[in-house]
Amino acid sequence: MMNGRGPSEVIVQIRGEQLEYVLNECMKTNLPIKHVQRNNETVTCIIHRKYLSQLDRIVFDSDCTWEVVSLSFFEKYKLLVKERIGFFIGMAVFVAMMILLSQMIWKVEIRGANPALKHEISQAIEEIGVSVGKFSFLLPGLEEIQSQLLDQLEGITWVGVQKQGTTYRFEVVEQTLPKEREDAAPRHLTAKKTAVIHSIYAEKGQVLVEENELVHPGDMLISGFIGKGKHAKMVAATGKVLGETWYQATVNIPLKQRVDTLTGNVEKSYALQIGSFRLPIWGFSQEKSFSSVAPSETMKQPALFEKWNIPISLSIVTWNESQSLSPPVKREDLRKVAKERGRSELKKKISDEATILNEKILHEQSENGKVKIVIHYQVIEDITSETPIIRGE
Fold first, then answer.
1. How many degrees, rounded to 5, is the angle at CA 353 between CA 352 and CA 355?
2. What is this structure's pTM?
3. Tens digits of residue pLDDT in 12-22
4. Among 174, 180, 307, 340, which residue has the fewest nearby CB atoms (within 10 Å)?
5. 355 beta partners
6. With b meaning 16 or more CB within 10 Å and e meaning fewer, what string describes 68-107?
7. Is 310 strand, coil or helix?
């Protein structure tokens, strides 16, 4: 009913016996009324609220009465705001807080610096004012921050400053000075362990061993003397001698392996994450409903907060019930696990450049619910050790 009225127009109802007089007077005085509908002694029409006083004078001269039966959009809006003023104030405060939080620094990252330099940079940027909790609009520009850091700090070649949402990132390039080369003192290269010579790479000095030769700790491999007799010259022997060495590892593995599997029962808990503060919402005691659980967390951020880069998100933790089983294990699988563990332990003892040439199970024995496996390894590694030449040798 009465569609198509403007935001400031109201619906008026006029009652009385002299309705024709009222309508004629409206036409004579060019009073704009529209959508006029008459029903016996009642007329309903639409009129702009600023003409209500003029309509009142016309109706007053007749024996009719009038009333507003439907307020304008603006009047309804004002009434709604007045009735729910608390809600609208809360919304305004919330939006203002979101805008304010988006201008606050929530995180400061420093990359590319060693711990000592990182501490020094942290102190420098705090003096400038860049720290968690400060407002970014109160800070100097990025170029000015970069210039101040380069002037204050020594030991850096370049520093990049980026602002991404509520995070300030500092990328640092440290100064690298060439190392001063020191002349090494005269020395021999000797064997540091028992081995069979695999290969010899001599840069300086006299080679005293051959390939496939068995050497023991302390045997000289590359001498630091060049020449013979009084013409002999002492140098710092350099090179690399690779030898075949041997290691033995003992691994104990339980005959029954425990395996955790999921039952399919799932519970979820929800929490509101605001920066580092977490506010539980629902299901925060779900963990207690399972005897054994495997939790996984998912963070979801509303599109509005993601656009403004405000650190407010919804944390969803999924609790999956699990149970422990002990299925039978084959001997071959146990041997495979033993070899993997043995290799892992061996790699902790040898250098990264060493090569495991071969592995062989020497002994296997079951006792006290475990299987004991002894593994022998052949390794190719550098066996050289530096021995200083004492004057007078």
1. 100
2. 0.41
3. 999 988 888 88
4. 180
5. 380
6. eebebeeeeeeeeeeeeeeeeeeeeeeeeeeeebbebbbe
7. coil
